[in-house]
């Protein structure tokens, strides 16, 4: 599959980039995409939630009223979960939500996500560029030139570029990462994928194994 290479102003350079069929034109596996996205979101959870149970509540241990003759249910402790301020029954405890997923499934999921983006013509290839200094305004100008100023976009770099990364950091709808950091969730979550020309080789080498 061939895609026109654009410059920083959104105009065609006259060159074509070849997107490997082994990465951008496979038979998509929706279930693999689901599993990888599910694992990514689960791994983001801190799992630090905690509620005090009956044994952890501070309070008197004396019997709060006599056993019989009150006309109400018997009660032995102010820390009873039925009372206000009492402990919680089977409350949440700190735990890990991390999930494991086979490397081959993760690789298949990323290729499937990229294929779906390629089919919907949501992948843009742009020639490598850099800024003289980190400046959000410069990055916004690039977004406007590509027609992505009102869409969620993901920029994929070949190598880390501090100026481009810092220029995009204040924008909620855009994210910049390198080809080695590419994940299925990031691909699916973006409306358009902007791939630097120098990142194509890294993406294909990582996913063609």
TrEMBL record:
NCBIfam families: rplD_bact. This is Large ribosomal subunit protein uL4. The keyword Signal does not apply. Residues 46-77 are annotated as: Disordered. Keywords: Ribonucleoprotein, Ribosomal protein, RNA-binding, rRNA-binding. Forms part of the polypeptide exit tunnel. One of the primary rRNA binding proteins, this protein initially binds near the 5'-end of the 23S rRNA. It is important during the early stages of 50S assembly. It makes multiple contacts with different domains of the 23S rRNA in the assembled 50S subunit and ribosome. It comes from Kordia algicida OT-1. InterPro entries: Ribosomal_uL4, Ribosomal_uL4-like, Ribosomal_uL4_dom_sf. Part of the 50S ribosomal subunit. Belongs to the universal ribosomal protein uL4 family. It holds the Pfam family Ribosomal_L4. One of its GO terms (biological process) is translation. The keyword Ribonucleoprotein applies. SUPFAM superfamilies: Ribosomal protein L4. GO terms for molecular function: rRNA binding; structural constituent of ribosome. One of its GO terms (cellular component) is ribosome.
């Amino acid at each position: 599959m061939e895609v026109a290479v654009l410059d920083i102003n959104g105009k065609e350079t006259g060159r074509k980039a070849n997107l490997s069929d082994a990465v951008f034109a496979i038979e998509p596996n929706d279930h693999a995409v689901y599993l990888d996205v599910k694992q990514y979101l689960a791994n983001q959870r801190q799992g630090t939630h905690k509620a005090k149970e009956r044994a952890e509540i501070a309070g008197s241990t004396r019997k709060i009223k006599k056993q019989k003759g009150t006309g109400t249910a018997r009660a032995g402790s102010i820390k009873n979960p039925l009372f206000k301020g009492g402990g919680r029954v089977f409350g949440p405890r700190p735990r890990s939500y991390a999930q494991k997923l086979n490397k081959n499934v993760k690789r298949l999921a990323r290729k499937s996500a990229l294929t779906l983006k390629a089919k919907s013509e949501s992948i843009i290839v742009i020639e490598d560029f850099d800024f003289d200094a980190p400046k959000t305004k410069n990055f916004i100008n690039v977004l406007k030139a590509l027609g992505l100023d009102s869409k969620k976009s993901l920029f994929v770099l070949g190598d880390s570029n501090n100026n481009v990364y810092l220029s995009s950091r204040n924008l909620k709808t855009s994210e910049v990462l390198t080809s080695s950091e590419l994940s299925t969730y990031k691909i699916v979550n973006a409306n358009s994928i902007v791939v630097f020309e120098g990142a194509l080789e890294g993406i294909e080498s990582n996913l063609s194994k």
